[in-house]
Amino acid sequence: MKAQFILLVEDEPILRNVLARTLAARGYLVLTAGSFREAADHLAVRPALLILDIGLPDGSGWDVAGWVESLIAPVPIIVISGQPPDRRQLRRFQTVAFLPKPFAVGDLLAAVGEHVLSQAAPRG
What we know:
7 strands; 5-stranded parallel sheet
């Protein structure tokens, strides 16, 4: 089975590192980015899932979602943000979960696990 990557876009280095290590410890392959530009650099590896902060230093996380969609195809997204959810954007992109900051790491793991299980389920 080909490895599938999670692209984690979070501008706060401590949170980004904790989340990346936690996901990696659970067996996920994680690429990290702290900005829109860094996220764009990782798009050659088509992520199976995007974990996305909305407030980035060089744009909005929604810019990242639009860039991914235009270059690759829609990618399921888990939004993590301290900002209130923009329901219109949540519907526009394939948002599978919204986690308001601060959130429990277990909640993120559960959301990722649910996405992985839904992808593995037989399609009828």
